[in-house]
């Protein structure tokens, strides 16, 4: 059973087959701004047991691991009831699977050379329900999306099921806006924005905000 955590503490599980990377991330995150690293895994096949034991809020997930890669581990996690959020770790240029990880349900991604303060912010944002989409990397990532035949029309058809207000919120999510930023721009309460995001996810059959962003991008290609 997971230990009792102080109110507001964000529990983090670090998953990477490189012991040096795991150690550096743990040292960086543990105790920083309300974060607590509750476990480390060297491979994706170790993740389910650690999630059961520690109930992390966020899993930092490497993509390339020897036995079970981050893509399969992410998909399995997102199929669980009340799954933790997942942020994938990648070198991007050498890892073609990051887009598939986002489609599998990851809430964002980080480059492994991301500055420590931004990694802490990413964990905090994802735990709060906001995706962490770095604008410069997202533009490059999105260029890889929507290449399959019929993807654009399928995305446009799905978005037509939304109300005008829901579509505005979906577009803002695709631009990487947080709930608070959307609320300020659209003169809504944060609670109203959260309700609209929930309706969009339900109508489109999506798992998280990152998948909303990918769908909107596919529709605009």
Automatic annotation (TrEMBL):
Keyword Ubl conjugation recorded: no
Positions where 4-aspartylphosphate occurs in the chain: 62
Domain HTH luxR-type intervals: 155-220
Alphabetic keyword roster: DNA-binding, Phosphoprotein, Transcription, Transcription regulation
Sequence ranges assigned to domain Response regulatory in this UniProt record: 11-127
InterPro entries given in the database record: CheY-like_superfamily (IPR011006), NreC/VraR/RcsB-like_REC (IPR058245), Sig_transdc_resp-reg_C-effctor (IPR016032), Sig_transdc_resp-reg_receiver (IPR001789), Tscrpt_reg_LuxR_C (IPR000792), WalR-like (IPR039420)
Alphabetical list of PANTHER family matching this protein: TRANSCRIPTIONAL REGULATORY PROTEIN NARL-RELATED, TWO-COMPONENT RESPONSE REGULATOR
Protein name: Response regulator transcription factor
Organism: Actinomycetospora chlora
Species lineage: Bacteria, Bacillati, Actinomycetota, Actinomycetes, Pseudonocardiales
